[in-house]
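hi! just following up on the protien thing from before. the input was this:
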Amino acid sequence: MRADAARLGDLIEKVAAAPEPARELFAEVWFATTGKQHPDVKVRFALFIEAKAWTDAALITVAHALPGWGVVTRTGPGSGEAKMQPPGLRVRGRYEGLELIRHPGGAALAVLQVMLQAKLAGH
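and the predicted 3d structure came back as:
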């Protein structure tokens, strides 16, 4: 378990320090967090990476790393934001999730970072 936590911690640092999305970083996060996936899912992820559809690649990673979880994100030029929404956690009709992450490299990196933090927290 310590090795997994250390690996997730290292990935969080890499993602936090990344100035922009990169194929190698996304692949490293994918393989560290999603486990064995159906070949069609892997192909879909690879197509998103090839097309540089970074937010789509980040969201499919979340869908397979934390099934049932949601992501709230804000995209646009410059920095992006993301917040994880655990399944079934609602307060007064609104979802309460983990800490909001802002990433200067955009929403896709914010999504990866917040997902990795949720995984590290044991979710």
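Residues 62 and 115 are 6 Å apart (CA to CA).
The first strand starts at residue 70 and ends at 74.
cheers
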